[in-house]
Amino acid sequence: MKWIADMEAFQIGSKWYPKEIAILNTVTRECICLTTRCSIPYSMVYPNYLPTLKCQFAIHGLYWDQGDYSLQRANQIIVNKVKAGDEVYVKGDQKAKFFETWFPSQVFEITNAPAIKDLKLCRNQVCNKNHQGMCARRKCFELLPYV
Ligand SMILES: [Zn+2]
After folding, report:
1. Containing H/E element for 72?
2. Among positive and negative, which fits the CA dihedral 139, 140, 143, 145?
3. ∠ CA 22-110-147 to the nearest 5 degrees?
4. 2-146 — its CATH code?
5. Ligand 1: distance of its center to the CA of 4 in Å?
6. Cα of 131 to ligand 1 centre, how many Å?
7. How far is the C-alpha of 27 from the C-alpha of 9, rounded, in Å?
C-alpha cells in the first residue's frame, strides 16, 4: 500500500511542533487526519519566537495549545495504520525527515509536484476544523496525482 503523509505545524529553527497530521491511502482513499497539542505550554515559548509563531498561525490557523490528541497518541494511531512494506510519500525534505522518525526506511519524497500554493483542485477535501485551505488533509489529496 502507498500512503501520502502531510502535516501543518509550527516550526522553530529545524524543530517541528506538529498541529495537524494526515495520511491518505492512495488506493482506498482512507484518510486519517488528527490535530495535536504542542507538548510545551504557549507561555513557556521564548518571547523572541512569538512573531514567527504568529506568522505561522496566520497560514494554518491552528492554535498552539489546541488539538484533539497528544503527539504521542497521534503517532500511535497513524503508525498503526501503516504496515511493514507500505510506502509513505511526503513532499518536502524537512517533512520527510520528520516522518522518517515515524516510519524508518518507508518514506519517499514527492519531487515532481508543483508548490502546494499552486495546487487548488481539492478545496472540498479540508477537514472539519474550519481552519481554511492550508489543511493537511487537503494537501494529501492534492498530492494524489503525483504519487
Ligand atoms: Zn485541516
Report:
1. helix 71-81
2. negative
3. 80
4. 3.30.420.410
5. 15
6. 6
7. 26
Distance 61 CA to ligand 1 centre (A): 9
User: What is the rounded CA–CA span in Å between residue 14 and residue 110?
Assistant: 20
Measure 140 CA to ligand 1 centroid, in angstroms.
11
Angstrom distance (rounded) from CA 108 to CA 48: 34
pTM, two decimals, is 0.94
Q: How far away, in angstroms, is 134 Cα from ligand 1 center? A: 7
Write out the chain's pLDDT in tens, 147 residues.
999 999 999 999 889 999 999 999 999 999 999 999 998 999 999 999 999 999 999 999 999 999 999 999 999 999 999 999 999 999 999 999 999 999 999 999 999 999 999 999 999 999 999 998 799 999 999 999 999
CA of 31 to the centre of ligand 1 (A): 12
Are 91 and 115 in contact by the 8 Å Cβ rule? The answer is no
- How far apart are the C-alpha atoms of 30 and 90, rounded to whole Å? 17
